[in-house]
Design a protein that fits this description.
single chain; 414 residues; alpha/beta; Rossmann fold; Dehydroquinate synthase-like, alpha domain; 2 domains; 4-stranded parallel beta sheet; 8 strands; globular
Length: 414
Amino acid sequence: MRGHMPITIGDTAVEEFLEFCRKGGYRKFLLVADSNTFRVLGERVLKAIQSQNWDVIQVVLEGENLHSDDFALMQVFKADDQEERLYVAVGSGTITDITRFTSHRTHNLFVSFPTAASVDAYTSVNAPVTIGGLKGSIYCHAPIAIFTHLPTICAAPKFLNASGFGDLVSKFTSASDWKITHLIWGVDFDEEIYQRALWAARRACEVVDIIHKGTPESMRAMMEGQFASGFCMADFGNSTPASGGEHHIAHIWEMLWHWHERKGLYHGQAVGVSVVITAGWYDKLRVLSREEAKQRLERVNIPTAEKQKALIHEHLARIEKEIIEHNPIYIQLSDKQVFMNTKEKILSQWEQIQTIAAQVPPAVQCRKWLKTAGSPTIPSELGISEEEARLAIDYGHYLRERFSIAILRKLFGF
């Protein structure tokens, strides 16, 4: 593994943070938390900073229905006094992303105090934020250090840590989508990072039977897996190794929740449900012979670019402009020559594609793991209607440049 920031996992995280600041000469801070994370850990970190007579600005955001969106970002920007400060994120995914984005845009460094094993992006350089109603992954920077107070992680709500399992188990499908995109579409790829992403998923599965207990052993394993996944994104420079077709389905649901100001949808839970869906498509891919694949590709009828754009306008008008601007792969496939070249590539790489697909556990196994961890497994358990589930399944592949299983299933008619 490549060199990364120092990480503490244990009981003395706050004390080690103070020592880190003494050695690094940090004396001015901007602490970001929400009302919940401030109560469980943020206030302790704040008092520790104040005990050293260091200068600190605190921003405590409302914890109910908090999103890393324009509104939350502006609350932090307004508090910044344009002095050089070390930003301190005390929270899980949303707070970390808000802090990552705002510290980067104000040209400040930041450190992270995770409060739950709920997401895999603590170590990432990317910030998933919703701006103008569109959720996207924006390049920012990684924290310079992470201080994980293990008792806080163990005491976190069980559903949050179960949500983190959903995010981690998705590396089976996201890493596979990435490698298939490399084979078919020629995107950059790194075998070492691919293997590390798979390791992160397996690390979580090793402790799935005790995640619901919140034991130090299980939470340490979860955090190790999440940090490893984040490092995959940091080392590659974007979220591709850890975010595939399953994330794109979840992103549609998350945007719907945000647009309609609904509450209670957690990223890892949505991703976990999407893993069951996409793993099911991999199940169908694995039993497909090359000859049958060839026959299906010869029968497929890809809608014209104009038809696809009309459907995007009908179903995702709010983000239509942003989708069309990046020229999605499926729209490109409406060009006959592009499709012919792609068909030849798929068939010529068929054995390699099947080798990749074999790395994805069966959908029934993914569902069993999620249930054991205490996480939802079907859209209705998230409060998602059949119409909303279908919308994400049918249009999630337009959100990112991935030749994911979501596109393959359209070509093969799954």
